[in-house]
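Onboarding guide, step 5: your first structure request.
Type a short instruction followed by the sequence, for example:

Predict the 3D structure of this protein.
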Amino acid sequence: MELLVEYPFLLVPLIFFARVADVSLGTFRTIVVFRGHKLLASFIGFFEIIIWLVAAAQVLTNLDQWYLALAYASGFAVGNYVGISIENRFAIGNELIRCISFNRDVLAEKLRGKGFKVVSFDGDMGEANPVELLLIIEKRRNVSSLIQSIKEFDQTAVYSVSDVKSVYDGPDLLPRRHFLRK
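The system replies with structure tokens like these:
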């Protein structure tokens, strides 16, 4: 601590990086809460607050040093970016992909062949425009490869991606012929 009293500018990077850490944890914790992971969020929150207390105390006890407040605010801004990046890296949760394919009975089978669980419905957009509606719930970390496959198999397909808070897995559905055997 004597070193910090003698060289107060050393507090600048310490406060900045402490603030980046606590805001990154806070951003990640908020997203984890939204996804329903209570225990993980509590664990993250504990460390987030300890880091915040240390950083805030240094700024509040040295209010006459404006550059510490600047380091604190800069760490907050960078921490938001870092926290979102961390969460994207972990890709926790599931997504619902809704897809309209204008090549009926083609895309769903090809996606199933790649291991995706697809529910499909036949539809039409007028007299001569048959379509197939696909619903797919997939883990976030696999969504980019799913979208890449959709684009590869049907360049005219239209899709949307939505967050899903909870997924309740039903029984692992086997083809009907397996149920007919005795």
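Each response can be followed by summary notes, for example: The radius of gyration is 25 Å.
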